[in-house]
From TrEMBL:
InterPro entries the record matches: Thioredoxin-like_sf (IPR036249), Thioredoxin_domain (IPR013766), TRL33 (IPR044193)
Pfam families: Thioredoxin
Gene3D superfamilies: Glutaredoxin
Organism: Brassica napus (Rape)
Protein name as annotated: Thioredoxin domain-containing protein
Source domain of life: Eukaryota
Domain Thioredoxin: 30-110
Residue ranges of the TM segments: none
SUPFAM superfamilies in the record: Thioredoxin-like (SSF52833)
Amino acid sequence: MRKQEPEEANRNVNMETATSDQSLITILDDIKSSKLPAVINYGASWCGVCSQTFPAFQELSSSFKRIKFVYADIDECPETTLRIRYTPTFQFYRDGEKVDEMFGAGEERLHDRLWLLS
């Protein structure tokens, strides 16, 4: 079976990646000025739990098309993620305001929170 290239794998994914502090600031500004719901997954490349939950996060982004999905690596966005103390951390936004936060893994818990947000 042929391995998918990153572009192919992300073609059907409803997700944006923050690659720097500035890009995360821009994304947060967009979320705060939008009426659309959003979820941010704060993780790290060295975090085993993050690596295990990321594929589920990607898959859920395809299922919940009306929610904006964002991934931010805390090492790539060190200034804007100073308050993140646990990875993964998921923050949920509605009408530009943070309405919920979830720490740790749990695909079913994440799905349930996304369902409530949608």
